[in-house]
Amino acid sequence: MNLQAAHTVRSSADAVDAAGVLLRDLIDYAGLFPPASLTMAASVANYDAYSRSEWNWILGRFIVPVARLDEFEEAFAALPTAHGTGFTNWRLSVLPASDPVADVARICEFNARMAGSSSGRRAVVESVEVKVASGGEVWALSGVIPAELAAYFEVPLPSCGECIAAVAECGRRAKIRTGGETADKFPAPESVVEFIGLCAAADVPFKATAGLHHPLRSVHRFTYQPESPSGMMHGFVNVFLAAAFLRAGIETRVAAQLLDEQSAQAFHFDLDGVGWRQYRLNRQEIAAARQAFAVSFGSCSFTEPIDDLRSLHLL
Q1: What is the CATH number of the domain that holds 143?
Q2: Where are the alpha helices (DSSP H) in 203-267?
Q3: pLDDT for 29-85, tens place per residue?
Q4: pLDDT band at 284; cut points 50, 70, 90
Q5: Model confidence over 165-189: pLDDT tens digits?
Q6: CA end-to-end span of the chain, whole Å?
């Protein structure tokens, strides 16, 4: 079956076909950030609603700046009493400010306070995402961030080799920016493949952020404004399948072609795996890539990716 026809009926607890393995815990919600730029109250309410939806198994972490943790805590406490199938334990990923030591202290205080909460719902910071310019910065910041926090270092693509090597030596994780609000923020497929290939070779897990609102590579508006310019955007199915294929040993040249793929008919999902053109991954290879390598991507929208997946009959 091609991607548009491959549809397996499944509940939120039974996403066991290849598409379900690829999508589970994939989308970290970043409603606070552009182009959505929602208020804290709206973002927290949205995440709570998404955690109660039938697609909650695709929902990952809530992303919030360290500087706004107090604001998050207020909005979180103001949520209605937990009921139904929503998350009782929220996983947070935070973006630090300019003082790493103070930020880490704030994270530790927040987690300790949440751990002592007597309410039926808790939130815990489990990862930190920080932008760096060099391998030296990776080493310096890694020494400050506690080992129990997963640390994702957003690296500059022109010099990503040095930074990824440092990330590997520190036992940390990498992050790639795959888009933005203007065309120049979208890296070429070859640059994305280089980053993923270096991570695979160094056994460095990674996450992506920005510009991945749609499953397949395609042209869309860069923001939600009606007059916003349009341009080619990477697809998250392309990116995460390319990562799984690269981890399984596919040539980088072929992986770049996969990232550039725009045809839904080129992908074939079934219970046992996925095929793209003449290449194939089994379900176990997809699961291994997602669990230990290609972790997630941040998106300011959860409904937009879900709607697109449904239109492609992947949900």
Answers
A1: 3.20.20
A2: 236-247, 252-259
A3: 999 999 999 999 999 999 999 999 999 999 999 999 999 999 999 999 999 876 666
A4: very high
A5: 999 999 999 999 999 999 999 999 9
A6: 14
Which residue in the block uniquely carries the two structure tokens 């929220």? 90
Residue 114 exposed, middle or buried by CB count within 10 Å (0-12, 13-18, 19+): buried
Q: Which two tokens stand for residue 244?
A: 């799984």
The answer as to whether 285 is a domain residue is yes
For the cut 50, the answer to whether the pLDDT of residue 11 exceeds it is no
Count, residues in the chain: 315
Q: Residue 196 is part of which domain span?
A: 18-311
In a domain, 3, yes or no: no
Position 7 in a domain:
no
13 to each of 25, 197, 307, how far by Cα in Å? 12, 32, 19
Q: Is residue 24 part of a domain?
A: yes
Q: What is the mean pLDDT of the chain?
A: 92
How many domains does the chain fold into? 1
pLDDT at 85: 66
Question: Is the bond leading into 35 cis (omega within 30 degrees of zero)?
Answer: yes
113: which 2 tokens? 């306070």
68 burial level (CB within 10 Å; 0-12, 13-18, 19+): middle
Neighbours of 136 (CB within 10 A): 12
